[in-house]
Structure formats: C-alpha cells, structure tokens
Amino acid sequence: MTTDYIAEMLERIPDKLLTLDAWHRARGGRMVSFAGYQMPVQYEGVMAEHLWTRENAGLFDVSHMGQVLLTGEDPDGALETVVPGEIAKLPVNRMRYSLLLGEDGGVLDDLMITRRERDLYLVVNGACKYDDLAYMRETFPDEVVITLLDERALFALQGPKAGEALASLIPDVASLYFMQAGAFTLDDMSLWISRSGYTGEDGFEISVDCDHAAALADRLCAIDSVKPIGLGARDSLRLEAGLPLYGHDLDEDTSPIEGDLGFAISKRRRAEGGFAGAERVLGELTGGAPRKRVGLAVEGRQPVREGAELFAGDRLVGKVTSGGFAPSLGAPIAMGMVTAAHAAIGTALEAEVRGKRIAVTVAAMPFVPHRYHRPTAA
Amino acid sequence: MSRYFTEEHEWVEVEGDIATVGITDYAQQQLGDVVFVDVPTEGKQFDKGDEAAVVESVKAASDVYSPVSGTIVEGNDVLADEPALVNTDPEGDGWFFKLELSDASELEGLMDEGAYKKYVAGL
C-alpha cells in the first residue's frame, strides 16, 4: 500500500537537530525524540528545574514550534475563517491565544496570534506545524502568503525573575505587559519578543535568527537567576498552570467548549459565527457540550497518568488526558475529559491505575496561581 | 553475600535463601526524581520476570520485574513516605522488596557487578 510505504518512509526520517543541539549537550541536557526533533528533556533533573523556574527564571528552547507569517491580501479575513477569535480588531503588537478549527469544530491546533506592523505572526505547536500549514494553504485564498520562519529559533524565558533578567540586557522590555509584543535589538541581534509563555509565570518568548541563537542563550544564561530548563519541567509547569497540551488534553475530536476554552471565542464571533465548525461550537456554547476538560486533585502520592479511565462508581465517565506529579505542590495532579454530568468542581471520581482505583476530585484550575505581568488597576 | 544484576537494571543481594531486590544507580539516574513506589506485600508469589513493583518519577511510571522466582517476605514500607530514597541510596536503603528464593539456580543467569558495569558502559 502506498500510504503504508509513505508512513514507513516517514518513520525512517531521522529527528532534526535544534540549532542549539551541541549547546544543550554541552550543558548536560539529556536529549529525547519529540515532535521530530532531538529535544532536551532535562539537565539536572525535572524537580529542581521546575522549582527553579517557579522561583527564578528558566530558559526553554522551544525552537521546534512553528513560527509562521501571514502576509498578502487580507490575512485577517482568511484567518478568521478557521479561528474563533477576533483578529480584525487586534491592535498592533498585541497577541491572542486562539484555536485552529476543523470543519466539524474539532481543534486542529492551539496557537498564539500577534498583529505586527506588516503581518500576522503565529506560533503553532511543533508536532502540528506542517499539518497547520497544509490546512491553511488549502483553506486560504491564494492571495494570502503563508511563510514558515524555519531560520529562526524560539526561546521562552519564564519565571518571577524573567522580567528583571531580560530587562538587564534590554531595558525597554520592561514596558511590555502580558500578551504584548514588539521588536527589540540586543548587540547586533534583531529580536521579536512577546510577554507570554506557557508556565503560568511572568515571562517572555523570544524569536531570534538561528545564527544568533547560541549568543543569545549564552547572554541569558550568564545572568545568575537564569538556567536552561528542559521539556520535562515545561510539562509539569504547564500542568500546574492548568494549561492544555495539544495532542493530549486537546485533539481534532475535541471542541473548544469541551476543551474549556470558551474564552477564546470572541464576542463578535459569538454573534456572527462564520468560522469553521461554528454551528457545533456556538451550539455547545449556549446548550452545553457533552464532555468537558477538568482539573483533578489526586488522593495519596501515586501519580495518575494520561490514559487512565475515570469512573463514577461502576460507570466509565471519562479519562485522564495529562497527569503527573506537581513539584510545587508535592502531590499528584491531573487533567481529564469527563461527561458534563461529572464536571462540577468537587465531584468525587475514581481513576483506574493498573487495576487499582485511586480517588480523585474534580478541582478548580489553575492548580498553582498564574502570575502574569498585567497592568495594575488604577 | 553476593550481588547480582539484570539487564533491566535490578540488583539482587542474596543471603542464605533470601534475596533483597532494588534498582541500580544507573536506573535511578535514568528515571530522575522518584515520587512514588508501589512495593509488593508479604506472601505474594512471583515467577522470574513478573511485574513485582512500580516506580514513578515526575514524568513516567516504570515496572520493576522480579529477577528471580520466589515469595515476598517483606516490602520496603519506608519508600511510601520517602520515595526519594531510591534516588539517594538506590543500592542500599532504597531497596524494594525481599523474597524467599524458590529456585536458586536462576541466579546463575544474572550478571555480576563487573559484567553489569560493562553492560551499562555499552548502552
């Protein structure tokens, strides 16, 4: 079969190496295969790196993610056909979390969209980037130009000392608030910096030309409060922050409402619709969805992992979509997708782990409060 | 007393017909921070290669296999409160369980310390 042959060939394609592959290895990074790349999963250990990020600042290499530009004629209009967010009125240098939707309203990816002077700049998941590009090329008019910036690296600098650390190199970044972005320079490097991230902490995502990536990482890690942090801690941090991970908590069958991401459907779009899957999504927005993503507090110390089935008595009511140990809390936590009737906070359920039932309770998220840098109310 | 090792990175210390089992320093380094250990209870019987215990790190769960056949005489209850002992003293206080050997000849198929070191160096 042709498709089997292609799948087999694809499996044999070796992982790509990050621009900073040697940089990570020299710093003790243990590299693992993830989203088609060799990625650093940890340096000194997930627990220590997680806690370091919550107290100081962690530097994550997230260059596997896709940086995409939309230019040409009316990219706003084209994008609004596949995302439920308000894009047309997004001000310059402001960004928005949104969802790429399929025709049936399932989530194909989650992404960050930033309006810049001359383009829309998107950051999409590494494992989805080529599918996202193919979908947009197929859906958008030919007049919209879609460009993958594969010559740029991407870093996330996250943690309560991230602001101070980055401002020690680039004082002007102090003017950014959460979900604002801009162009900055450091030495001879042109940087695109947003005040955003996926750990629940204050922090930045920094796009830099691959030729300058090592120099930038060295400048940042020379600051006492900054250490390189691996993907392992990135995952436990985002889980504590209650943030869904695409491919685990969200997938092409899950609607934004099931994913508990109703906030990503902007007011105008709720009234007008006009995006892929709007009928299902808006129907669930008013009438409720059959399932919902929830947080789960886990009794005892044993972690409950992705795939564990969730029960209310004898009744199978859902499954765990992400789970692990929360280093900041010293306890296991999880997220799951459960039937609407069992999604209320406080609902007692059981997770089945290797034949054993473990008590879990539907819990409010985030598990660890967000500490984004927002303007204080006057 | 003699100590044996498996390709799955368990160690076995034998004294008389009682074998103490744990995971090696190499294994704990690969696992990272251990946050939970499920050890078998007294009286359980295992054949060589059976899943006997579970060790969980921040990221993942791993099975620990019984390197030899026998009956559990003790699980290390201290690990319930101090799972990190597996990281700090994997080949000592961080042991998992003790079992009474039912077939001592199974030990012959295991590696000694020198052979295990060579095996790990080749991974």
Give keywords.
heterodimer, A: 378 residues, alpha+beta, 6-stranded mixed sheet, 10 helices, 20 strands, B: 123 residues, 9 strands, 20% helix
What does this molecule look like?
Chain B: It holds the Pfam family GCV_H. Chain B: Residues 18-100 form the Lipoyl-binding domain. Chain B: The modification N6-lipoyllysine is found at residue 59. Chain B: The glycine cleavage system catalyzes the degradation of glycine. The H protein shuttles the methylamine group of glycine from the P protein to the T protein. The complex is a heterodimer of chains A (378) and B (123). Chain A has helices at residues 2-12, 21-26, 46-55, 75-80, 129-139, 162-169, 210-221, 231-240, 267-272, 278-287, and strands spanning 16-17, 30-34, 37-42, 57-61, 66-72, 95-101, 107-115, 120-124, 144-148, 152-158, 181-186, 189-194, 203-209, 226-228, 291-298, 309-312, 315-326, 331-339, 348-353, 356-363. The termini of chain A are far apart. Chain A has 378 residues and is an alpha+beta fold. In chain A, the strands form four sheets. A six-stranded mixed β-sheet of chain A has the order 11-12-13-10-4-14. Chain B has 123 residues and is α+β, with helices and mostly antiparallel strands. Chain B is built from four helices and nine strands; from the N terminus they run βββαβββββααβα. Chain B has helices at residues 25-31, 78-81, 85-88, 113-121, and strands at residues 2-5, 10-15, 18-23, 34-38, 45-46, 51-57, 61-65, 70-75, 97-101. In chain B, the strands form two sheets. Chain B has a six-stranded antiparallel β-sheet. In chain B, strands 4-6-7 form a three-stranded antiparallel β-sheet. Chain B is globular and about 35 Å long. Chain A binds chain B through residues 41-42, 45-48, 50, 232, 235-236, 301-303, 305, 324-325, 327, 332, 354, and chain B through 32-33, 35-36, 38, 54, 56-61, 80, 83.
